[in-house]
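Same chain as my last thread, 292 residues:
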Amino acid sequence: MRGAARALGLAQPVMTRSLRELEQDLGTRLLERHARGVELTAAGRLFLVRAHAAMEEVRRGREELRQTGGAMEGAVTAGLSGMAMLALAPAAYEQFRRACPLVRLRLIEGPFPPLAPRLHDGSMDFYLGPRPERIDRKQFRVETWFANLRRVVVRRGHRLAGATRLDELLGADWLLTGLRERAEAELEELFEAHGLPVPPLRTRIDSISGVLSLLANTDAVALLPRQCVEAPMFRAVVQAVTLRETLGAPDIVLIHRAALPLTPAAEALASCLRRAGGQSALTPERQDPAER
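reply #2:
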């Protein structure tokens, strides 16, 4: 309590009285006081999430007004899939910095499910990556940017680099990349769709840099969005296997909260990412059919 009071520049009695008044107003206890200190009750933990989201919206509202008035300052936080971070972020970053040199930028890499709570509580402006298997459309708006394809990727000089059919890769050491909630599902569906047995799937890597490291230094094989192969960091050490089969991939989508628009700064970053992705789009940009 003393530390919290110092952080807010208040006297501790004022802090204590304010908390007591808040509990009385809400009609429930938010804090449990012990000899060792204070901890949140179950109700307190629930209310903290709402309070944090409310404060984030107040902050974002102030920044939005200043940005609309021409002062492009404040902060933007975006979640990016590994593909988006690797293939789209470098070009988008340079454009964004030229357009918004004073805006504080935070980029968080990861799949959508673990980052969804950040969108929900307002600590993240938007997410860009493959369409998730499940999403709450009451909370989030989904904008489809472009369709995508995948490639089988191996290190340069790999013995399987010259393969032309998927069945030639049955004996390979496959890496699971964690794109799906159940990582094995992606490769299982791929092989079953072509009438092939599913190879043993024993290794999962949730980091794009970890995938690159193993691909570059071992005989492992991975199924990745084609933008990864085209990225300079990957292109120097790995190559795509040219197969006769077409390997589809989830659409690349932008996800943000349904109830609120992006701030001008967040919209500027999204526009930079959109332009960076335009080079690799397979189909014209379109709105998600469910949003029409």
